[in-house]
Write a structure and sequence with these properties.
It is a single chain. A hairpin with a 4-residue loop joins strand 7 and strand 8. The protein has 169 residues and is α+β, with helices and mostly antiparallel strands. The protein has 2 domains: 35 residues; 116 residues, Sandwich (Immunoglobulin-like). The N and C termini lie far apart (95 Å). It has 6 helices and 8 strands, in the order H-E-E-H-H-H-E-E-H-E-H-E-E-E. It has a 4-stranded mixed β-sheet, with no helix packed on it. It has a 4-stranded antiparallel β-sheet with strand order 3-2-5-6. The chain is elongated, with a radius of gyration of 29 Å. The longest helix has 30 residues. Helices cover 34% and strands 26% of the residues.
Length: 169
């Protein structure tokens, strides 16, 4: 029986291809078995607790501003609450949540997990009617891995329950 070199090459090529596919499949199977699952994005929230009477009986607008770079902190806090709510910077700022709250309410705000991954601080600014003291209307919260932060909303001021950070000028 005569075996031609072209037939022999085809046999070895087919054998090599099958062996190569088998090796690839085995390494993929071993690689998948040792892979760690992708971690879920961490959920975090702010819980606002209000006194019965706040902001002279009107809804209180509040902005929750995600600070992803320390330089942004100065950019946000230099305006103060009055100029923040009246100026263009508020409209331009992309990484924020805006809510309004009434007296006697408890409101939970789920923070954006995609932004929270990169967030170093949260600035919470309230727009109280007739309040001129920025320290009463603005707090800075170091979130540092907590799942929930409680924000106390009083008649004419806001504060963080655990005193993470308070007003910084």
């Amino acid at each position: 029986m005569k075996i031609y070199s072209s037939q022999l090459m085809a046999f070895y090529t087919r054998l090599n291809r099958q062996l190569l596919l088998l090796l690839v499949a085995a390494s993929l199977g071993a690689g998948c078995a040792t892979m760690k699952p992708i971690p879920a994005l961490k959920t975090a929230s702010l819980k606002f607790r209000t006194e019965k009477n706040i902001n002279s009986g009107k809804k209180l607008p509040i902005d929750i501003i995600y600070i992803t770079y320390v330089q942004e902190l100065r950019e946000v806090t230099r305006y103060g609450p009055e100029l923040w709510f009246e100026g263009n910077k508020r409209e331009e700022w992309k990484q924020k949540e805006s809510i309004s709250i009434e007296g006697g309410q408890t409101k939970v705000v789920e923070l954006n997990p995609r932004i929270m991954e990169r967030t170093v601080l949260l600035v919470i600014i309230a727009d109280y009617e007739g309040q001129k003291d920025p320290r009463a209307q603005q707090i800075i919260v170091d979130y540092a891995g907590k799942e929930t932060e409680i924000i106390l909303v009083r008649e004419a001021s806001i504060s963080a329950e655990n005193k993470s950070l308070q007003y910084v000028k």
